[in-house]
Amino acid sequence: MINKVPIKITADNCRGCRRCEIACSWHGPGPLNPRLAGIRIMKLEEGGVDQPVINMECLELFCGKTDPSGPDQYVPACVSACLFGALKIDWEGDDHD
Prior knowledge:
By secondary structure, this protein is α+β, with helices and mostly antiparallel strands. 20% of the residues lie in helices and 19% in strands.
């Protein structure tokens, strides 16, 4: 199991659709409840910006919810649900564009 999740957040790409919140809560324990998700979309009123925020528990304890290409590459449900590229896995450790 992977411990640190290399999720790169590009807030400029976030459209506030909250698919990531739904996907996370759908795959988690208990009922479908976005308030219990490990990710939240915060609305920054200045400029009308949507900012994805991942909680520390999610970052430190990788969920491994989706396995798209083999046993060594796991993608959490929030990343696979993002249609706009606001959340991506940074396998190489690059945090620059």
